[in-house]
Write a structure and sequence with these properties.
mainly alpha; 2 domains; two-stranded antiparallel ribbon; 13 helices; 2 strands
């Protein structure tokens, strides 16, 4: 009976994912030249008008598919894993490992690995400053193959943060892009600039901090967390990613690549591998956000093409009496505080608990 229930929840999960991804795809302008999206929009606007729910007519179609399918996906995912655990609970009861101690060890390894990759990125920057083209870096320096995609992923999270903030504050998203040089651009309409402008840097820092905290404190969630994050990345990619000014589809490549990779990680890899990969990704994302902000503090006038940088835009539109450098410094302080919180409660606090248990056991 439990096996049958597990299968039912699996199929509900699969149908929910198909609904969200398929709906986001067919409602995008990339499908059938946008004709399907236009027909769907007209149908929803007609139904919303007849039902008296005018606000629904302004909601982006991909977001409708996501919101309508996500609750079913989350519930079915939780129930699927609960049934899976119940099938093996009795057999594993007598040989259950010390999850916290094991997680601490893997988290420390992930921290060391992330710091090693961070030093590798320093080599990349040195080569870039010396005028070596990026393609040559990838060919001549094998370690760049690891660091470069992470840099692009951080930019993806940055631009996605602007987009999500625009949606949450009542605006809409035209699209966001990522360029091969690591820069990016999010084009949004309306929305609250006090939320949209800082959501790039602080959104990336929050993503890294929260991911590290959850992975370290709740290791049993990591497989589902990998799956859910991968799914969200793919939905955002299909709904809002677009080529950059030079027609590079970097955002699509990074979004689909990392999304599928995280889904596969959560579906197939053991829990401990998920802990290692997610913590490494969280640390690198948080560090990139902090050091990007610090670069902005030292160079507050840096812009991307014709667009102001986020701190300058925030200073102009929200706090005209506060210079961009001060805005960037305040954001950097907030980002550091979030990372410190995640490190303390996600790792240091648990180490203290382990030490206390050992001391009490010897007493």
């Amino acid at each position: 009976m439990r096996t049958l229930t597990k299968s039912v929840w699996f199929w509900i999960l699969l149908l929910s994912i198909t609904w969200m991804l398929g709906g986001a795809l067919i409602s995008s302008d990339a499908f059938a030249g946008g004709r399907v999206a236009g027909d769907l929009t007209n149908s929803i606007q007609s139904i919303a008008s007849e039902s008296g729910v005018d606000a629904l007519a302004d909601v982006p179609l991909p977001l409708i598919f996501l919101v309508s399918g996500l609750p079913f996906a989350l519930v079915s995912l939780v129930m699927f894993w609960r049934n899976r655990r119940s099938l093996t609970a009795n057999a594993a009861a007598d040989r259950r490992p010390n999850y916290r101690r094991q997680t601490i060890m893997v988290t420390v390894l992930a921290l060391l690995f992330a710091l090693a990759l961070w030093n590798i990125r320093g080599i990349e920057r040195t080569l870039r400053q010396s005028g070596v083209p990026l393609a040559d870096q990838v060919d001549d320096l094998g370690v760049s193959l690891i660091a470069y995609p992470v840099r692009l992923f951080v930019t993806f999270v940055h631009e996605a943060g602007h987009s999500v903030a625009a949606l949450l504050s009542g605006g809409h998203v035209i699209g966001f892009s990522v360029s091969p040089d690591g820069s990016g651009l999010a084009t949004v309409g309306a929305g609250n600039p006090a939320l949209v402008a800082p959501a790039g840097y602080l959104g990336a820092a929050l993503f890294g901090s929260l991911l590290f905290f959850l992975t370290s404190r709740q290791p049993k969630w990591t497989r589902g967390l990998s799956f859910l994050i991968g799914l969200m990345i793919i939905v955002l990619t299909l709904a809002y990613a677009m080529p950059d000014a030079n027609s590079n589809a970097t955002a699509h490549i990074i979004g689909i690549g990392f999304g599928v990779g995280l889904i596969a990680l959560g579906w197939f890899a053991p829990r401990i591998i998920n802990v290692f990969v997610l913590n490494t990704l969280a640390i690198l994302t948080g560090l990139n956000a902090v050091f990007d902000l610090w670069s902005l503090v030292r160079n507050p006038g840096v812009s991307s093409g014709q667009a102001l940088n986020d701190a300058a835009a925030f200073s102009r539109d929200v706090t005209p009496l506060i210079p961009p450098a001060v805005v960037a410094f305040l954001w950097a302080a907030i980002a550091v505080a979030m990372l410190a919180f995640a490190m303390y409660f996600g790792l240091i606090k648990q180490v203290e608990g382990e030490i206390s248990e050992v001391v009490q056991g010897k007493a």
